[in-house]
Design goal:
The complex is a heterodimer.
Chain A: E1 2-6, H1 10-22, E2 26-30, H2 33-43, E3 47-51, H3 59-69, E4 74-79, H4 83-92, E5 96-100, H5 104-119
Parallel strand pairs in A: 1-2, 1-3, 3-4, 4-5
Helix pairs in contact in A: 2-3, 3-4
Chain B: H1 2-51, H2 53-56, H3 68-73, H4 77-93, H5 96-108, H6 111-118, H7 124-136, H8 143-147, H9 155-169, H10 186-197, H11 207-211, H12 216-228, H13 235-241, H14 247-257, H15 265-271, H16 278-291, H17 297-303, H18 309-322, H19 326-332, H20 341-353
Helix pairs in contact in B: 1-4, 4-5, 6-7, 7-9, 9-10, 12-14, 13-14, 14-16, 15-16, 16-18, 17-18, 18-19, 18-20
Classes of the chains: A alpha/beta, B mainly alpha.
């Protein structure tokens, strides 16, 4: 599966990339919201994992832009205590969310769920 | 003439010195920046290895392999600071075994001992940073070292210590409320409540004790806990706070009662209206507008005589929302034909509609 990760924290980005590559996915990295939107258009990923707080464009804006003209599933990474943001993300069309701190294993399991749906 | 020449030479020399200094400064900055980029890569690589360490090593006690170069670099203050900053940020993002691995690395590199040494620093910001590290890395064994700082005279050290204790022990960590003598500012209360929202909910005991604290800010914080966690069993304690000496405590109690109330709460609040401060009177009206259940509408109609528009509006809103016949009584009142009530009523009607 082709997965795009949008995250401005380099370590987090690389950690998630490491885990997803180990799981056999093709990974595209984006370090800010603007970069993410460009790469989504260019690479047409099967799944998007996006942080909420990012430079130029937030994760919520990415959800809104992507869901306007596609059904690509999106997993939002939010901070603890940001329930309002998560609700807003779901309202905009996000498919799942993970709260930081999170376990890369949990993310892996959730991606597998989308991979199964994608194969169907 | 000579004077001007000397003055010119002086400024010229000064300009040369300034340019030399700035060039040197920018040069050093450039070298540092390059160093930081290199360090970042080195640190990220190690942290990544550490995060996934348990997936490749089944032995619990195995040490995370660290290069000699990195160990040597840790003696450099700037590198060490950068490393600690990164490992703390990573720990905040990772949970379970992955987070534990980072904690393991932190201890393995002796950074916990460094943090404990920093606790003894005279500089408050260094101490606050050390406390933050201990809290984030979950070093429960050092609770006694940071617990005393929860009542430190420096408010930034104090809040970091309080948050660290909550990080380590969740709701149980709130025990520091038993002993603190300093005020918990509004901002600190927001930070504590936010921190509590991230810890798993457990049995929250001791609120009744804090509601009787001699420190008004502790009572206010306890009232906020009651409100946020809907502790209905403490209703009578909240009502008794309506008689507290401190007006801000009474105001907080009024606001808490809008979340946990009974059928006669509105009456209890109304009976205290006359004796309250202006701000608290407004709070009472706002509370009644939420709670409702007003038996005696005529009392509220009497308060419409207030001169301030803010109060008039609060009373009118309490009337409309607090009683089934409130709006009708308000419209039938002769004062409703004149300004400002004539302008307020359409807004209140629209509020009901929505």
């Amino acid at each position: 599966m082709r997965v795009l990760i949008a995250e401005d924290d380099e370590l987090m980005l690389r950690t998630v990339e490491f885990r997803l590559k180990k799981d056999g996915h093709e990974v595209i990295l984006a370090r800010d919201g603007r970069d993410a939107l460009q790469k989504i258009e260019e690479y047409q990923p099967d799944l998007i994992i996006s942080d909420v707080m990012m430079p130029y464009l937030s994760g919520l804006e990415i959800v809104a832009a992507v869901k306007e003209n596609s059904q690509t599933p999106i997993i939002i990474l939010s901070g603890m205590g940001q329930e309002d943001i998560v609700l807003e993300a779901f309202r905009l069309g996000a498919d799942d969310y993970l709260t930081k701190p999170f376990s890369p294993n949990e993310l892996s399991v959730r991606i597998k769920r989308f991979a199964v749906v994608n194969q169907r | 003439m000579i004077f001007f020449e000397v003055l010119l030479s002086f400024f010229f020399a000064l300009a040369i010195c300034l340019i030399t200094f700035l060039s040197f400064y920018l040069f050093v900055r450039k070298i540092w920046r390059r160093e930081y980029v290199k360090w970042d890569m080195m640190i990220d690589l190690l942290l990544r290895k550490a995060i996934f360490f348990h997936e490749n090593n089944t032995t619990q006690l195995a040490l995370i392999p660290v290069t000699r170069r990195l160990k040597a670099n840790l003696k450099n203050k700037r590198f060490c600071k950068q490393f600690v900053k990164k490992i703390i940020a990573a720990k905040r993002n990772m949970s379970g075994r992955y987070g534990e691995n980072l904690r393991h690395l932190y201890i393995q590199l002796g950074l916990d001992k460094k943090a404990l040494r920093l606790l003894e620093s005279r500089k408050w910001h260094v101490r606050a940073y050390a406390i933050q590290q201990i809290g984030t890395m979950g070093l429960k064994e050092h609770l006694t070292r940071i617990y005393r700082y929860t009542n430190n005279k420096n408010d930034l050290v104090r809040i970091e210590a309080q948050i660290a204790v909550l990080n380590l022990f969740g709701f149980e960590g709130l025990r520091f409320l038993d002993i603190i003598s300093y005020q918990i500012t509004e901002w600190q209360q927001i930070r504590l409540l936010k921190e509590l929202s991230t810890v798993p909910q457990a049995e929250l005991t001791g609120i009744d004790k804090w509601l009787n604290s001699g420190n008004p800010s502790v009572v206010i914080f306890a009232l906020k806990l009651v409100r946020n966690y809907h502790r209905y069993e403490l209703y009578e304690h909240i009502v008794s706070c309506l008689d507290h000496d401190d007006a801000s405590v009474r105001r907080q109690a009024i606001s808490t009662l809008t979340e946990i109330y009974t059928e006669n709460t509105s009456e209890k609040l109304l009976s205290r209206f006359e004796a309250e401060t202006y701000k608290n009177q407004i709070a009472i009206m706002n509370a009644i507008a939420v709670i409702g259940d007003v038996q005696n509408v005529s009392i509220l109609l009497g308060y419409l005589e207030a001169e301030q528009h803010e109060m008039k509006f609060a009373v009118a809103r309490a009337l409309v929302n607090g009683s089934a016949t409130g709006l009708e009584c308000l419209i039938n009142d002769p004062r409703s034909k004149t300004y400002p009530l004539s302008d307020m009523i359409p807004q209140l009607k629209s509020e009901i509609k929505w």
